[in-house]
Amino acid sequence: MLLCQITDLHITRPGLLACGRVDTAQALRRAIATINRWTPRPDAIIATGDLIDTPHLSEYEVLRECLAELTIPLYLLVGNHDHREGLRAAFPEHAYLHTGHEFVQYRVDLGPLTVLALDTQDPPNAGGHLCEDRLAWLDEQLHACAGRPTIVAMHHPPFDTGIEFMDGYGLTAQGRAGFARVTSRHRHIERVICGHLHRSIQASVEGAPGVMASTCVSTAHQITLGLAPGAPGTIALEPPGFALHLWQPGAGVRTHLAYIGPHDGPYSFDGESVS
Ligand SMILES: [Fe+2]
Ligand SMILES: [Fe+2]
Description:
single chain, alpha/beta, Purple Acid Phosphatase, chain A, domain 2, six-stranded mixed β-sheet, 25% strand, globular, binds fe (ii) ion, GpdQ_beta-strand, CNP_phosphodiesterase-III, hydrolase, metal-binding, Phosphodiesterase
């Protein structure tokens, strides 16, 4: 199974630029064109939050128009820039969004692989939270899919990154402790995949050693790699991309970072162009 992850699309209204500089709708169209051509074709795509930017609900209309180009089954998740009801209203045909529960949480089975999508939104805070209700749902779902390789998808990562500015907008201590408590009980979690950081970072889940987690680059702009104490929060127009989570029997999940071009190549090892 091949699960494609896109994240932090930050779609703006027509004529507006994210951070005054980035045409995020055009960036998403480029990402979709790349993914639609990808071989092998991903079995599904999950967008791990910050789908829109402000949130102004008309941004979901632009998002919907962009996503209409996608030819692969799509699952949407909320981040701190999203609006749960606005998302539901814009995507009435996405049945998994309309469960009657407050939180945008759902289970998707992709052949033998299970994906559990978890809602870390904590409005009006930019940081995230996992309350006991959400954690109880996760625990119940993990019990229900015991024995199946499972990916947990969520917007805010369950670890500190070392980028102080963004760690200031992380998951609450209570949410992290609860997430560690639940995930350390289950042995079939292959990977926890997250967004929010606009960078590719790998770590263990804080408090649950051995449970691997990662974040992914944005389809648009990236957060500057500011590891120095007190480094200011800024964006950088580093290459955009997406993640490909490849699961195969006996090998588990391998996560590949794919960049969105154009870029030079491919060439043979002799320097010849390869079409
Ligand atoms: Fe974001
Ligand atoms: Fe975010």
